[in-house]
Structure formats: structure tokens, C-alpha cells
Amino acid sequence: MTQPNAFAIRAKTIIPLIREQAARGKDLYTKLPRIDNGVVLVMNGRVADIGKASQVAIPQGWECQEVDGTLIPGVINCHTHLELVHCANKTRSGQGFSAWLQSLIDQKPRSMPEDANYVKNLSQEIADLVAQGTAFVGSILTPNPSLLVLVPDIARCKGLGLHVFAECFGFGNSLPPLPPPEHQASLAGHSLYSTNLTLLQRAALYCQQHKAPFSLHLAESLDEEAMLAHGQGPLLDIFQRTILPKNWVPPFQRPLALAKALGLLTSNLLAVHCVHLTDAEIQVLGAHRCAVCLCPRSNAYIGVGAANVRALLKEQVLVCLGTDGLSSNTDLNVINEALYLKERYDIPNDALIRMLTVNASQALHCPKGYASLGTGARAVFCKLPHALTDHSY
Fold first, then answer.
1. Are 59 and 168 found together in one domain?
2. How many domains does the chain have?
3. What is the mean pLDDT of residues 100-122?
4. C-alpha atoms less than 13 angstroms from C-alpha of 255 in its C-beta half-sphere
5. Co-location of 150 and 229 in the same domain
6. Which domain holds residue 293?
């Protein structure tokens, strides 16, 4: 929540993440400082002061909100597709990637921004994100000029920080348009199998030159591997029927090897999913200081398997979290990704909190004021669910 007026929040515990940096490998597990019985003073949407209740006086007449739990800065969802709100509960689940993709292709309408009901649903979804404690998202957008205005404008109106990834898709030669310059944006490549490889290189170079993140779906499914490394499989069948040029030749390389050969493995790469990687390939990602966005519930929904989470956390990979879109998930609350990983891998809470905040902020190159509750930071808070706290209440 954000409010422009002056008020105070008193919480059982606050994890402010002041001066905390993104963390990789064993540094992910370092204990985060906490403020027990803490108070935050907020003025005009910014943190005015923070500390123990015994040290921070609440001005007379100020409203004080009591939080019986743990507060952290608003969380960051590094990968979603906000535009796909119309696909909720309409795609195939658990049948593998190609079956899911075909069901998505079948659902996509032609003129979403002109549909009043679509705009209403998109606005509500973004409002829900803010209410849940999401401060910032990285969202893929297709190069539809109306969407490139509509989505950022709604996000700004609702108080949601947004990095737009204008997506390169298909086998043309032109980079996609970006949203108006007042919005934070860079480029994304859809994937190695669906996009002109030269165009991917140009998009990645553009992002490097502008010191901006470059997003790419990478090693999401075995169908992807079959198409790229072996020139076969159901994914190849789908693209041969749709956009694949008749003269397309398989690279006969695994996805990670191909990405490396193209020069895409850089410190500004945000590699999304990374489900089907060997230990050696994960080490390569770490050596190149890449960021990896895990979307575990989306992978489970589609039925593509699970990423080697423990190996990714061990290496020098910048791990963050995303939900993917409503076409492959039940909601866009990135906290639920952390809960999913906590339940299955028993990852320490502080590591998950870093993935949701400081790691995500670095991966998306968020503006100053996110992923911290220091003085001057944006007054956007997330109350952690009990499972992600150190309390037994």
C-alpha cells in the first residue's frame, strides 16, 4: 500500500534491507538485520524515519497502523506478462509445453486494448498486485503500440513500478518499438527457437549499450531442446505451421550453448526459467554473472519439470523470482513463488527475501528507492506470510 499523507506503521518485526546488496552463492544466506517492535514514519509516499519504537517518536495526531507480523519492502516480480490477463484459466495445464503453447495461441484475441472488459480486468489485476505488496514488476509486452501505452499508464496510475520488456518475436529484422520515454523499458527476446538469432544479438547489444536488462526465455522445456539440438519434436511442428521460415535450419546446439555462441551471456542477461540445464551449464551462467528468474509455479502448471534450484543457488548466479503470466499461473503474487520454493526446498527465509527484493532490483535495474526501507525510500510494504518469517505465531 502507498499513501500520500503522513502516517506511521508499527510492526512486530521490520526487515528494512537498508544498504543491503544483491547476493549470490553463500552470501544469499547471510542473516538480514531486523528491527523488532519497529516503527516507520511515512510522509508523501516516502519513508521519513525508521527504527525501534523506543527510538522513533510518532508525531502527535498521526494515524498509526499496527501490523502483527513482519514487514519488508514491497516485493519485485521479475517476470510476468501483464497483457495476458485474458488467458486466465484458459490454457492447458500439465500436458507439456507444446500443448500449452498451442492452447495459448488459440486464446489470444486480436484487439485487446480496444476491449473495455480487457482494460477493466488489467486494471484490477494491477491494483491487486499493489494491494498484495508488490512494488515493481518486469513485464513482457508484445510490440502493440496501444499496449505499450496502456499497460505503463495503468501501472503508473495504480502506483506499480514497471519495467517494460518490448519483445522481439518472429523472424523479421526490426527491433520492436519501446513505450514512451517517461517509462522504464528495454528489450526482450522471446526465445532462441522463435526469434531471428541476429535480431536477438542486436537486441542484446542495444541493452548492453544502454546499461539495461535483456530478458530471454531460456531452457524452459525439453521441447525447446528437441527443436534446437535435434531439429525435431512437437514445438518444431507448431512453428513450421506458423512463423518458421521454410529455409530454417536447426542450430544443433543445446539452448545454453547456443546463447553463449551468440554472445548473449552477459551480466545484464535475465534468463527466465532455466529448467533444463546441466550442472556444468549452470556454472557457465554463474561465470558470466547472469541473472536467472525462476518461475516454479508456471513450470509446474505447464508440466515442463523443475529447475535445479539448489545448483543455481550454489553458483554465482543472481537468482530472482517471477510468476510468468496468468496464461500459466493462478495469480501474479510473487510471494507465492517464494512459498512454493520454501515448501519444496526448505530454502532459508533470508535467501528468499533477497530474491524477492535486492536481487530482483538489481536484475531489473530498478530506480533508487525500491528494495529498501531506508529514509527516502518508496513507502511500499509487504507483510510476509507466517511461513517466511522467523516467528512461530
1. no
2. 2
3. 85
4. 27
5. yes
6. 75-333
- Are residue 208 and residue 170 in the same domain, yes or no? yes
Residue 68 inside a domain? The answer is: yes
Amino acid at 122: L
- For residue 198, give the amino acid letter: T
Average pLDDT estimate for 165-193: 96
- Nine-digit cell string for 48: 521519513
The one-letter amino acid at 253: Q
- What's the number of CA atoms in the CB half-sphere (13 Å) around residue 206? 22
How far apart (Å, rounded) are the C-alpha atoms in residues 78 and 271?
Answer: 10
pLDDT of residue 391: 60
Q: Which residues of 134-150 are buried (b: 16+ CB within 10 A; e: fewer)?
A: bbbbbbbbbbbeebbeb
Same domain, 172 and 66: no
Which stretches within the chain are classed as H helix? 97-107, 116-131, 147-158, 197-209, 222-225, 234-241, 255-261, 279-287, 296-302, 309-314, 335-345, 349-356, 358-364
Q: What percent of the chain has pLDDT over 70?
A: 97
User: Quick one: cell of 241?
Assistant: 505451421
pLDDT in tens, 145-161: 999 999 999 999 999 99
Q: 190 with 165, same domain?
A: yes
Q: What angle (nearest 5°) sits at the alpha carbon of residue 382, between those of residues 379 and 388? A: 150
CA distance linking residue 4 with residue 351, whole number of Å: 32
Instruction: Please write the tens of the pLDDT for every residue from 82-109.
Output: 999 999 999 999 999 999 999 999 986 6
